[in-house]
Amino acid sequence: MPVTFKFDFDKAFAAIVYLASKSDSVPEFDKLKAGKLLFFSDKYHLVRYARPILGGSYRAIKFGPVPQDALDYIHAVIDPARASWVDAGKLKKLSDALVVDHGHQYPRLSAKEPINFSEYLSKSDLEALDHVIEKYGKKSATELSALTHAMPAYLNAWETRGDQNKVDMKYEDFFEADPDAIEGALDEMLEDDELRRAFPGTEF
Questions:
Q1: DSSP string covering 85-121, please?
Q2: Which residues are CB-contacts of 68 (< 8 A; sequence separation ≥ 6)?
Q3: 3-class SS shares of the chain: helix, strand, coil, % to 5
Q4: 3 state DSSP class of 109
Q5: Which tens digits make up the pLDDT trace of 95-131?
Q6: What 8-state DSSP symbol labels residue 11?
Q7: Rounded CA gap, 25 and 22, in Å?
């Protein structure tokens, strides 16, 4: 069975607000750019530390990979009509931390005020986010989408979609041809997944 990671809303909340708070380094922060930067951050952390930051389901769609669970909340923040899809309390927490600017073709997000990021994010989480901000933060959503289209993790999934417009991606594929991957991280991820299945409710 493919490796799975439980979606961590608190980490997703902090990661989204962290990116949204970096307006100088991450301009034009809309939902497409958010999805791509979260993907890059999760991927970078996974191949180095054997776990993603926020986890959940990743899906390949026409515009590249998306963190489906996190994106559901971002959609609902931008368009309240989608609020029924997500947990109301969690949505309020994220909505209260963000400003949505609808004065653009694609609404942009910014942080209302800084939060205590270390309450939610580990040092390695922040390291991954800062790495991605430095490397990709000033690229446009279109540029980021093009970059992800060339990645094996996306291509391996997209090529199996058949007549579907989206398909689940495999965390195992995140390691393929990734120069940031640390030796042993893939084996550690696989071992931890086996332990989680053997001992449900326990995190490794």
A1: GS-HHHHHHHHHHEEEE-SSSS-EEEESS---GGGT-
A2: 56, 57, 58, 59
A3: 55, 10, 35
A4: strand
A5: 999 999 999 999 999 999 889 999 999 999 999 999 9
A6: H
A7: 5
